Structure formats: structure tokens, C-alpha cells
Amino acid sequence: MKSVGCMLMVLLVAGMLPAGERPNIVLILADDFGYGDAGCYNPQCKVATPNIDRLAQQGLRFTDAHSPATVCTPTRYGLLTGQMPFRVPRGGTVFTGAGGPSLIAPGRTTLASLLRQHGYATWAVGKWHLGLTFRDAAGQPIHDGRPEAIPRIDFSRPVEGGPLEHGFERFFGTACCPTTDWLYAFIDGDRIPVPPTMLLDKSVLPKHPYANDCRAGMIALDFPMQSVDQVFLERSRQFLEQHLDQHPEQPFFLYHATQAVHLPSFASSRFQGQSGAGPHGDFLLELDDIVGQLTGILERRGVMNRTLFIFTSDNGPETSTVVSMRTDHRHDGAAPWRGVKRDSWEGGHRVPLLVRWPEVVASGTETDQLASLTDVLATVADIVGEPLPSGSGEDSFSLLPVLKGEAREPIRPYLVTQAFRGAQTLAIRRGSWKYIAHEGSGGNNYQQEPLQQYALPETVAGAKEQLYDLASDPGETKNLIEEQVGMAAELRALLGQVSGQRR
Questions:
Q1: Buried-state track 363-394, b at ≥16 Cβ within 10 A, e below 16
Q2: What is the distance between the alpha carbons of residues 135 and 428, in angstroms, rounded to a whole number?
Q3: Do 440 and 318 share a structural domain?
């Protein structure tokens, strides 16, 4: 009895729940998957998404969730650290090639480091895109995102600043966008075992309107441009199966960051021509299947009921994808919002967020609680009973009361988002009111095609700021900056206070 009492005391002092009460956590971060790309969010969706829809049927659907940024690198930073990216140097950067160093400072608490301290096995699979340090033959850091920097890399040296230095025990994936940027090779741990030695031959790749974001670069012999997501899926399957065979009682955290559905839309062969909505529809179909494959593994191994499963996206859908899918297939990945990826308008950052946790989350429920992907850190800390260390998770609020169905008041007093130009393009929400501290979209150019056709008339000529009431105007069509002077002043002051301080 004494030994049992001592063990319980140790667990309480450490703030840790017993292993049996700590859920496994699987977090799928899709790429450029819009609010309107899933049937459970868009009844007019033209691609079947049964596995994503099943998550909504079996769990909780957020209708007012947001990525912290409208592009990939900053959002990934906010998700993993609970801190808005505009608060750090280079927080609006989108890395390419050998760009770096890591956006995450050494020692900063991340989802992985927090969970690892609580006995979790931690794995990252897929797109990293948070900056790395590659070195040349003389040992000098490269930190150069241009294509000509790739041949300078000494691939016998370890890759620095990656997931293994930020709390993950194992990593398999790519430095940046897997089939977009000029370093087409897999990183395994902190090494690239098969370096890129050839120039990418684009002549053998598909040619369609959804294939135009594939840039010339260096490619490794083992890098399959049209089935990268299947390689990622297989590695996640291996991690899960091996762990459940060898350490079935140890909780695990799997962060699976897909290539799908970032351009180029290169669906694997099994999905090509299967969606009825062209190459991008096929890619959406493959993403949905990935969700089904991962949930299927957990169900087959009998651990799904003690797993917190999260599905979301890093920002809204890509500009050219939305334009072509609207024209070709009457599918709108941004529906029903104004704007797309890179924009401060809702279509740029309002994203699907689905949470399944059978022992806690009621099935078939939804919430209009305002949420940010930065909130995952505080939520997970709450779940494992660990107060966030001082100076970490500054922009993270625990959504655990929402997951439990216990929240009676808004969790978030406000929400800040940043568009393509980082700290220069901030916006803030409080209740239904949204203040945008800049003119225009903050990202895309609506004065030129192909987006000119979607430009809305300016209701306040020459306005350098925007104010919308999403309750009465969810499409952000009428700028109230001159009609609601008092509200604009309040939100302008709040944004200045929030963006200038550390929570």
C-alpha cells in the first residue's frame, strides 16, 4: 500500500494522469483544405468525403475555427507552439528549399515536447515546413531558400532544427512543400538517406490546370512525385503498428501533416479519375481515404475509443484551385466565405476542425465557439493536467470545456489572425465583430484575373481599415468602418494591446 501511495503522490506532484487515463492523440493537418471541401461543412461539395464526414458524425464539429495564419509555415508554428507567429522574428516567412533556420526557438514548449514529458511516444510524419539548417561541405549553414542552394548541401551531415529538436522522437517527411519546392527528398530522423541527385523531369508529370505549382528542382531516386502521401501514410502505419505491438500501454502522439491537397494535385494512381471532379477532386478523395486508413488502423487495433483524433487544415484553399474548381466542377472549397488562401477574409483562415474522442466528446455535436489552432497546446496541457510553463502558449486557450460539453460562455475573448504579409496584415475578432487593420485582402490581388471576377465593390472609398459584423454580413460585403466608429476604435485599441504584449 505504501508503494502504491508513493506512486500516486509522484504522479500528482508531476501533474501527470495515469497512463490509462491519458488519451492517444492523432492530429491530421491537411494542406490547403478549405471549409467547403468536406461534405459535413458544405452540402454542395462535389467530392465524396465519407471518412471526414464520419468524424463529424462521431464527434464534435467546430463551425468557427481558424488557422492562426493564411499560409502554411506560420500556421504550423502557431499550431505546435500555441504562440501567434507574428510575435517572433520571421513569423510571416514561408520557407522553401534549404531555407532556415527553424522558426521554433530552442527550448520553446511544443505539443510534442509537452507530451513527451508526460510519457508519450511522439512522432511527426509529412510536411515540416518550419525551417531547417542544412550545412555545406565546410560546415557552414546555408539558410538559402533559392533553388541554386540545393547543390551546396552536404548530405552527409545531419539536418538541424527539425522535429527531433522540438520534442518529436521520430520523424519522416520533407523539409517544405513535398511536391512544390526544389528539394524533392525524404528526411528520416535528421538525415536525408537518399539525396537528390537529378534534375526533376517535369515532362513525365501530369499536365492540367491543377499541376502548375510544381517547380523545377533536384529530386532523389526514391521520391515518387505522384504518391508522396501514400509514402507518408505507410510510415505512419508503421509507427502505429510497431508501437502498439511493442508498447501497447504507452500513450502516443502522431502528428501527420499531409501533402494533400496542396498544389500540384497529383493524386496517387488508385484515385485518379475516381472522384468525378477532375484531378483536384481525386486529390480530395485521396485525403479523405488517408483519414479513413488512419482511423481504420486505430479501430482494428482496438484503441480508437481511447484516442483523441483531430482533423483540420493549415489555411483556406489555394487561389487557382478555387477558381478552376468553381469553373470546371461547380465545387467551391472556400464556401460560403469571402476570400481564399493568403487573405484576411474568412475564406483564408476559417478551417474545418473535427474532434473525435469517444470517452469525452459527444457524437454528432457541433459548436460555434470561436477557436484557433493555437488552442490545441493549452487544450492538450489541460488534458494531461500540466500548467503551461511561463512564457509558452501565449495565444492558446484550453478548449477542453468545449470538448466536454461544459462550456456555457465563450472560451476566447478575442481571436487574432494574420494574412500573407504577417504582422502588417493582422485582423481581430470579438464576438461577431471583425476588424481588419489594413486595406484589401492582405494577400491576393483582386485587381487582376483570375480573381478580378470575385472582387466586391468598395463600400467605403479609400478605406485603409475594414470592419464587418459577421452576424448580419457573413460574406464581409459591407465595410462599417465609418458607420461604427466606436466599435472600430475599440477593436483597433484591443488589437494594438494584444499584438504588443505577451500573454
A1: eeeebebbbbbbbbbbbbbbbbebebeeebbb
A2: 40
A3: no
- Give the pLDDT confidence of 452-471 residue by residue, as tens digits: 999 999 999 889 999 999 99
The mean predicted confidence, pLDDT, of the chain is 94
* Model confidence pLDDT, tens digit, residues 435-454: 999 999 999 999 999 999 99
Q: Whose CA is closest to 66, among 52, 42, 92, 84? A: 84
Q: Does the residue 11 lie in any domain? A: no
pTM of this prediction?
0.95
Task: Indicate left, alpha or beta for 121 from its phi (over 0: left) and psi (-120 to 50: alpha).
Answer: beta
Looking at residue 21, what is its pLDDT?
A: 78
Same domain, residue pair 387 and 436: no
Tally of structural domains, the chain: 2
150, 250: one domain: yes
**Which CATH number fits the domain that encloses residue 443?**
3.30.1120.10
- Cα 486 to Cα 148: distance, rounded to the nearest angstrom: 52
Same domain as 468, residue 342: no
Given this model, what pLDDT does residue 19 score? 54
Active site residues: 72, 129
Residues 351 and 428 in one domain: no
262 in the same domain as 279: yes
Residue 151 neighbours by CB distance under 10 Å: 10
In a domain, 51, yes or no: yes
- For residue range 2-43, what is the model confidence (pLDDT) as tens digits? 344 443 333 333 345 555 579 999 999 999 999 999 999 999
Final residue belonging to a domain, choices 395, 413, 431? 413
Q: How far apart are alpha carbons 149 and 153 in whole angstroms?
A: 7
Confidence of residue 503 (pLDDT cuts 50, 70, 90): very low
Peptide bond into 389 cis (omega under 30): no
In the predicted model, what is the mean pLDDT of residues 196-224? Answer: 93
For 257-300, how does the pLDDT look when each residue is reduced to its tens digit (9 = 90+)?
Answer: 999 999 999 999 999 999 999 999 999 999 999 999 999 999 99
Would the pLDDT of 101 be above 70? yes
Burial group, residue 188, by CB count within 10 angstroms (0-12, 13-18, 19+): middle
Helix residue ranges per DSSP H, 27-165: 50-58, 72-81, 111-117
DSSP string for 265-323: ----GGGTT-SSSHHHHHHHHHHHHHHHHHHHHHHHTT-GGGEEEEEEESSS--HHHHH
Residue 122 forms part of a structural domain: yes
Instruction: Out of 378, 413, 448, pick the residue that ends a domain.
Output: 413
The answer on 227 and 371 residing in a single domain is yes
- The parent domain of residue 463 ranges over 422-499
